[in-house]
Amino acid sequence: MLRFFAAFFAVLLMLLPLHAGAQSTDTAAPAIDRTATGGAQTLDDILRRQAQIKMDDSFRSDNTGGTSVPPPNGAPLGTSSDSDVWRALRYNKADVRISTANPVGTVLMQDGGMKWYEFREGPLTHYGSWLLLGTMAALIVFYLLRGRIRIDEDMTGRTVTRFQFFERFSHWLLAGSFILLGVTGLLTLLGRLYIAPYLGKDVNATLLTASKFIHNNVSWAFMLGLILVFFLWVWHNIPNRLDLVWFSQAGGIIGKKHPPAKKFNAGQKIIFWSVILLGGSISISGLSLLFPFELPLFAASFHHLNDLGVPGWFGMAPLPTELTPQNEMQLAQLWHAIVAFVLMAIIIAHIYIGSVGMEGAFDAMGTGEVDEAWAHQHHSIWLDEVKAKKGAPPAE
Amino acid sequence: MKAMLTGFAALIVIGVGAWYGLSQAGFSSQQVYSGANVRLD
Questions:
Q1: Domain assignment present for A396
Q2: Domain count across chain A
Q3: Do residue A269 and residue A324 come from a single domain?
Q4: Does A92 share its domain with A170?
Q5: Domain assignment of residue A278, given as a range
Q6: Is A254 within a domain?
Q7: What is the pLDDT of residues A259-279, one digit of tens each?
Q8: Residue A309: strand pairing partners
Q9: What is the pLDDT of residues A157-209, one digit of tens each?
Q10: What are phi and psi of A161, to 5 degrees?
Q11: Which site among B2, B4, B12, B34 would you substitute to test the A interface, given the most A Cβ atoms closer than 10 Å to its Cβ?
Q12: What is the ipTM score, two decimals?
């Protein structure tokens, strides 16, 4: 499990540069000699900007008229010029006063939108789609090579209760809501690309409207299911030494061995902690999106990461800590989608092994009753514990 | 299978309840972004 957590943390950190790249402008850039232009823009600045190379633009962002005292009678000389005002608006340094209900309106210009859009339509859509398709393809190949994992022993006809009613209810509450959220999330993200060109914009718009309604409201069932499942099963998912045995035998998925396990084996623990941690992260970013501009997450998170020196571990400049409310929403959307793609890929594998991939597995969540032969093969220690409680002799 | 169907039914009830509750509590975008000088209705 330690390895799993290390890998998860590494993946988490690897994702951060994507966010920083989406809107960072304050990374270090080589100093440019601007004495020839009296501190104003140089040809080198223009060329670097055209080549989309990071540049130190403090000569513009800081040049907003300063604190000069306005002359009497509103005379224009000696105070902020139009250029100063526009630069102040451009860099969000102007003292903007508004009469709308939300202070977000004070940001008149912010340049994160295009970068967010390009990332959303580009790498996010591209790699996210391939991740899901690749996972499904890998499972099909695995099925063709390995086939269904059968129960080696003869069925006994005697069953044990694997999951109680409330456990199964909580699982299906979480599972049903996750599938709905996944489908509606994919429709929202990919509809313009894959549906509008073929079925028309009207169909896509209708699907989007329905998807938004379902996604926003079903999210509460998902969060409730996540909390229920956490408290029901966390005790059984604490890592222990048996997990190392399970890993050493590849969980019986590859080969013919069936490592001993308690109620949950190491593979199931990976699924559990993935659902809890990734699902929790999706829930938090989802809440930030459900209540726009009310729950900003990233400036504070980046601040903590900078304090820990995390960006430096990867040779990166500190992450931006001054984010406009719009930047916060853009980052929340990207993070929400990236983590959701990873969790969807994991859950596709979970659905596979819980249905066609393993004989008898679905019964555990279907009726809650599993044959003793199945329980002995996959959860032998748990079966012995259940039998000991009932006073029955342990399985051979 | 009863647990599965109950879970799905609860999902629908919670979803409808969330929609109704949040609308009643004034959390719709229309209400959040309306003010003395801005009306979105």
A1: no
A2: 2
A3: yes
A4: no
A5: 2-25+112-390
A6: yes
A7: 888 889 999 999 999 999 999
A8: none
A9: 888 999 999 999 999 999 999 999 999 999 999 999 999 999 999 999 999 99
A10: -80, 115
A11: B4
A12: 0.88
